[in-house]
Amino acid sequence: MLGTVESLLGANKIRVRCMDGVVRLARIPGKIKKRIWLMEGDVVIVVPWSFQNEKADIVWKYSGPQVNWLQRKGFLKS
């Protein structure tokens, strides 16, 4: 599910607004924690937890050209 980073909460916790309208508390798993650097406004892919819908894991961060392509193709609203 696509989402936009709203705020950085410290450590590996991030508040993400998902495309279904839900604001989720997301975390960066240890496997990719040191590999990606997130800022507010970045577009990411999140996977909601199966047992708690208000939380999710971040699995991918889109780069600038990828975000432009997603907007042109209509996957992102703005």
Automatic annotation (TrEMBL):
CDD domains xref list: S1_IF1A (cd05793)
Keyword Protein biosynthesis: yes
PROSITE patterns in alphabetical order: IF1A, S1_IF1_TYPE
Keywords: Initiation factor, Protein biosynthesis
Residues annotated as domain S1-like: 1-63
InterPro entries in the cross-refs: NA-bd_OB-fold, RNA-binding_domain_S1_IF1, TIF_eIF-1A, TIF_eIF-1A_CS
GO molecular function: RNA binding; translation initiation factor activity
A Pfam family per the record: eIF-1a
Function summary: Seems to be required for maximal rate of protein biosynthesis. Enhances ribosome dissociation into subunits and stabilizes the binding of the initiator Met-tRNA(I) to 40 S ribosomal subunits.
UniProt-listed HAMAP family: aIF_1A
Family, per entry: Belongs to the eIF-1A family.
Full protein name: Translation initiation factor 1A
Name of the gene this protein is made from: eif1a
